[in-house]
Design a protein that fits this description.
Chain A: It is a multi-pass membrane protein. The complex is a heterodimer of chains A (291) and B (266). By secondary structure, chain A is mainly α. In chain A, 75% of the residues lie in helices and 0% in strands. Chain A contains 13 helices and no strands. In chain A, helix 4 packs antiparallel against helix 5, helix 4 runs parallel beside helix 8 and helix 12 runs antiparallel to helix 13. Chain A is globular and about 70 Å long. Chain B has 266 residues and is mostly helical. Chain B folds into two domains: 48 residues, no CATH class; 203 residues, Orthogonal Bundle (MetI-like fold), CATH 1.10.3720. Chain B has twelve helices and no strands. In chain B, helix 1 packs across helix 12 and helix 6 runs antiparallel to helix 9. The two termini of chain B are 35 Å apart. Classes of the chains: A mainly alpha (291), B mainly alpha (266). Chains A and B meet through helix 2, helix 4, helix 5, helix 6 and helix 8 of A and helix 1, helix 3, helix 4, helix 5 and helix 6 of B.
Chain lengths: 291, 266
């Protein structure tokens, strides 16, 4: 991103530069030192290892893109992130709409539930889904008692489990920005549409969707990019045969000690992430969903 | 028409049904954990055959759970203080400084929030191996500080931008030194930003798990690392008890944040 624009040097030249540049630079120094030492240098060092280990060259990238195993991991990652994004749009849009127009009590209640779910510890929420999705878990037992299925459905240790759990975790990140978008629409627009003879369906497809398109796109990009790099939920709800990219990076470091390949996989993840943020920055402004 | 709940017609039914289902999807897992933590079934039967406080007793009698709880709390407390302090200084620089490249610098400070945390976790693990900081208190604090700082800078910068600087100038005109004016006029004026910076910094460290998994040693584990380890072994109801306590803490912090917001409005 903007890493190279920033003076990374010993304090005295930085201060000299600051004097030339204007006032008020000194208070920023502690934060700058922290971010450079504990963030910029370690990440750059990891990425450098991808072209230096075991020997200088691009063989790690060649190995990554030639291996069907790793390409499958990449495919899994895009598949899960894509499915989660579509699911959060389809579920999140009506909820955001409801929140914007429902009677105050119901809208406040649902809003509190969304916020509580978002703030609840990630591991606690993942634990709940591990309990729910087990072979002998509540969902399978209920479905069998109802006679809908005769064998337990395989809901955990596969991509289905990961998708269900991640949709749950990502939903608030879609609902909150969409809610803000829908609330900002002037209701008079729909009165106008109605006066002009538009049916509800026409008003929805030709007025509401175009007016909320940028909010949907911004939320979708945010959810997609967060899902791409997710580690905890895939590690706990997923299986060993169907990994996602973040798990692969962790495993390359922890079990295989292959730092070169881990660096290469990390760079692949970073490039995809930054490319999507660039799109978001370019077209929709920055950080709507998180701030 | 579409923004008037009473005039939605048949669409209203669809909207209510979906809102109910999604509300249940978001809420029921949380209620389930709370119920299981008081349920007497070791195998997590639902509805529970009876009620018990046994899992909480097990939890409080296990020195390892207590130790990881204290470790997490100490790390988060130190991170909160440092994050608000460093974030406050950086926010002054970013909002009032006149040097060039402020926008770029702000973007750099916020980057750790955006990048996939697993990349930072692996990178820091390698870096701290050389510095012998893995599994140390200092290592945890430094790593969590990088994660917490963006929240602090966002909250405090926003508050500083909204604060009317003329009030601070007026204090100086009335004889206060610039530092005195900042401490006695500006800081109380942006206290809401400071409180949310503290709450978000605390939660960022308290809930952080990915970096901690890599950095933890058998001797120094944070609470999320311990939960993650336990989840990989079995789904013991003790985890439900820990989770319930965490949910209670979250709800309490949310209430605190809401209280301060109300306080600021009145």
């Amino acid at each position: 991103m903007t890493v190279t624009d920033v003076p990374i040097a010993a304090p005295s030249p930085v201060l000299a530069a600051a004097r030339r540049r204007g006032r008020g630079f000194a208070p920023v120094l502690p934060a700058l030192a922290l971010v450079v030492v504990v963030f910029v240098i370690p990440v750059l060092a990891l990425l450098l290892r991808s072209v230096l280990e075991p020997e200088p060259g691009l063989q790690n990238y060649a190995a990554f893109f030639a291996s069907t195993t790793y390409l499958k991991v990449l495919g899994n990652t895009f598949l899960v992130a894509g499915t989660v994004t579509v699911a959060t749009v389809l579920l999140g849009f009506p909820v955001a709409w409801f929140l914007a127009i429902a009677p105050a009590f119901w809208s406040r209640l649902l809003f509190a539930i969304v916020i509580l779910s978002m703030w609840t510890n990630l591991l606690a929420r993942t634990y709940a889904w591990m309990v729910l999705l087990q072979r002998t878990g509540i969902i399978n037992r209920t479905l069998m008692n109802l006679g809908l299925i005769s064998e337990p459905l395989p809901l955990i240790n596969n991509l289905a489990g990961v998708t269900i759990g991640m949709t749950y975790i990502m939903l608030p990140f879609m609902i909150l920005p969409l809610h803000a978008t829908i609330r900002s629409i002037d209701p008079a627009i729909f009165q106008a549409a109605s006066l002009c003879g538009a049916s509800r369906f026409q008003a929805f497809t030709r007025v509401m969707l175009p007016l909320t398109a940028s909010g949907i796109a911004a939320g979708a990009l945010m959810v997609f990019v967060m899902s791409l790099g997710y580690f905890i939920t895939p590690a706990l709800l997923g299986g060993t045969s169907n990994m996602m990219l973040a798990e692969l990076i962790a495993q390359l470091v922890q079990s295989l000690l292959d730092w070169g390949l881990a660096g290469a996989a990390a760079l692949v993840l970073l490039v995809i992430t930054l490319a999507i943020y660039m799109i978001q920055l370019r077209f929709f402004g920055f950080g709507q969903a998180r701030s | 028409m579409l923004l008037d709940f009473a005039r939605l017609g048949p669409w209203r039914v669809a909207l209510i049904v979906i809102a109910l289902l999604v509300g249940a999807y978001l809420l029921l897992p949380i209620l389930l954990i709370i119920a299981l933590s008081f349920g007497s079934s070791q195998w997590l039967q639902f509805p529970p055959p009876g009620w018990t406080l046994r899992w909480y007793e097990d939890l409080f009698e296990d020195p390892e759970w207590i130790a990881s709880f204290l470790t997490s709390f100490q790390i988060a407390a130190v991170v909160t203080v440092l994050s608000v302090g460093i974030g406050l200084m950086a926010s002054f620089g970013l909002t009032r400084g006149t040097f060039r490249g402020r926008a770029a610098l702000r973007a750099l400070f916020l980057t750790p929030m955006i990048l996939p945390v697993v990349v930072l976790a692996v990178a820091l693990y390698a870096f701290f191996l050389r510095l012998h900081l893995n599994g140390t208190f200092v290592g945890f604090v430094l790593a969590h500080l990088v994660i917490a700082l963006p929240f602090s800078i966002i909250a405090i910068s926003n508050a500083l931008e909204r604060f009317d600087r003329d009030i601070e100038t007026a204090a100086i005109v009335c004889g206060a030194s610039p530092l005195e004016a900042k401490i006695r006029v500006t800081l109380p004026g942006i206290r809401l930003g400071l409180v949310s910076a503290a709450i978000f910094s605390f939660l960022a460290s308290w809930d952080e798990v990915v970096i901690a998994i890599f950095m933890a040693s058998p001797d120094l584990q944070t609470l999320p690392v311990r939960i993650f380890g336990a989840l990989r072994q079995d789904l013991s109801p003790v985890i439900a008890a820990v989770s319930t306590l965490l949910i209670a803490l979250t709800a309490a912090l949310m209430a605190l944040a809401a209280f301060f917001r109300k306080d600021a409005r009145s």
